[in-house]
Amino acid sequence: MENKQSIRPELVQEFVGNAHGDLDRIMQLLDQEPGLVNASWDWGNGDWETALGAAAHMGRKDIASFLLSKGARLDLFAAAMLGKIDIVRAILNDNPNLKHSLGPHGIPLINHAEAGGDDSVQVLEFLRQ
Asked: Which residues, other chains included, contact 122 with Cβ-Cβ below 8 Å and sequence gap of 6+?
């Protein structure tokens, strides 16, 4: 296995922080360091967040879609925000206890669906059952 250099922590923090709302900066940083696409940052006390996770709870479909196009790993919270009902349903049918799981910053799954607006109405209705 090849010994790769770690990404500078400040760069990871900047990338994840900007994924809450600055698509242009995300694009610049990812162009500079493609390995950031799945990097995660611990805001403290185990509050781990990826850029996709940041975009998901902020309802930033543009940032989430861009990150997914660059190879970000889709998770339940992003799927809920993006209205991917088949994915959300499959995961929750297999693991019903995840319906009440918390994402970054302790934000519940249902809040991610709410952040998705009109695109995630089906997910929201499914979670409210």
From this structure: 83, 85
Q: Where are the domains of the chain?
A: 9-127
Three-class secondary structure of residue 108 per DSSP: strand
The pLDDT of residue 1: 64
The CATH class, in words, for 9-127 is mainly alpha
CA of residue 64 relative to chain centroid, distance = 7
pLDDT above 90 for 37: yes
pLDDT digits (tens, 9 = 90+) for 73-106: 999 999 999 999 999 999 999 999 999 999 999 9
Distances, alpha carbon 81 to alpha carbons 1, 58, 84, in Å? 36, 9, 8
Under a CB-based contact definition with an 8 Å cutoff, are residues 88 and 99 in contact? Answer: no
Q: How many CB atoms lie within 10 A of CB 90?
A: 12
CA geometry: angle at 71 spanning 36 and 78, to 5°? 90
Residue tagged 């693991």 (tokens): 95
